[in-house]
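Form 7-S
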Amino acid sequence: MHEVAQKIKSDIKKEAGDFITVSIGIAPNRFLAKLASGLHKPDGLDEINKDNILEIYGRLALQDLSGIAQNNAVRLASAGIYTVCDFYCADVATLKRAFHSIGGYYWYLRLRGWEIDGVEFSRKSFGNSYALPRPLAKSDELSPILAKLTEKMCFRLRTAGFKARGVGLFINYQNGNFWHKTRLMADFMYESGDFFKCAYKLLCDSPYKESVRVLAVSCFDLAKLSVIQPDMFGMQAKKYNLANSVDAINAKWGSFVLGPASLLLSKENVKDRIAFGGVRDLI
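Output:
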């Protein structure tokens, strides 16, 4: 592996000269290989293996790990984990409690060299959430944000080749209250507008009229999209073809180049962000 890595570096230098350098990491999984590539930037070649992993972990801070930003570091500290070595030595139960999810188990495997980030798991739902930068309380104020979250969710749903019957809405309010409701429809849905109508009805059902801190929409009860059930007037096929055409244009030219006019109202409230690791179908 070292010979291959060195040849890659030599070939780049031969073709591009000294203007471009590359750091290469060698490790049992992608996460550790990325970590190794950053040890001696901008022109490093390092390997992480069973013989040196603890020594390397001992030189790093938690936030040196890709995917561990300040919020996750605080979560880990609440579980008594302050260093990368603490992180490595923690058992699965402790990490699950710290992350409040199965993500703790994934970190347990990732830190030990198991390939977890390239594994496809059975998908049960799709969802998107957003923490509002300023307080909004009225349904018509929240509607453009909900529309954009729904569009992002549905793009991922369709790209993965799924349709869904269930829609869920979660709201966390500024005063600490939270509210959650789901609805299971009679028929499977595919087009963003159908999901948004259902999600907006759920939003209007909330008994709280307070300022919202976090808004999240999800879909569940998934099924692989093999064929579209035809209806008498061919509307389902038209919706299917339109959604696919819009997705293809947005995938080529940029997210939300085409979309509902209501998305224009969300620009000042919803900024596009890219998350690390957790979203495999990144857009």
